[in-house]
Amino acid sequence: MRKNYIIIPVILVLILAAFLYYKDLAGKDTDINTGTGPGELAPDFTLKSINGEEISLSDFRGKKVFLNFWATWCGPCRLEMPDIQRLHEEQPGVQVLTVNLQEEKGKEISFLFTNAYTFPALLDPEGEVSSKYIIMGIPTTYFIDENGVIINKIVGAISYQRMLDMLKIQ
Predict the structure, then answer these.
(1) Is the pTM of this model over 0.85?
(2) Is 36 contained in some domain?
């Protein structure tokens, strides 16, 4: 009987310790809010590439991500495409992802192949991801760190050097 008086408090202490430990671990993931502003965790998404492959933003945790929203009819988007291609080729530590806004797949493929662009191009045919990211004008680019946290957002065409600056690459 006396052993039960000792065992029961020990078990309760162990349960309490396990609960507090688990709560602490769970809290580490929720310390950062998901959103579209600097310092927030970028909303995850899964889209198909022009090759039919499903790609999720979270697949690239551990790498910096350059996330660009664009369309083939957008002049400023077309202007920055050579610099995006250069970033893709010269910065292997950065994952380039481009999201085409609600255009036909054939139009995007034709544009990319005609211009020899090889960076990953994703299709957002229903505009779900662009809505999630509150895209009001294009091009819009999000710079995301290795932990999935947004570093910065820029609306408008940007140069290769500005891309590097935003990604904090020397």
Answers:
(1) no
(2) no
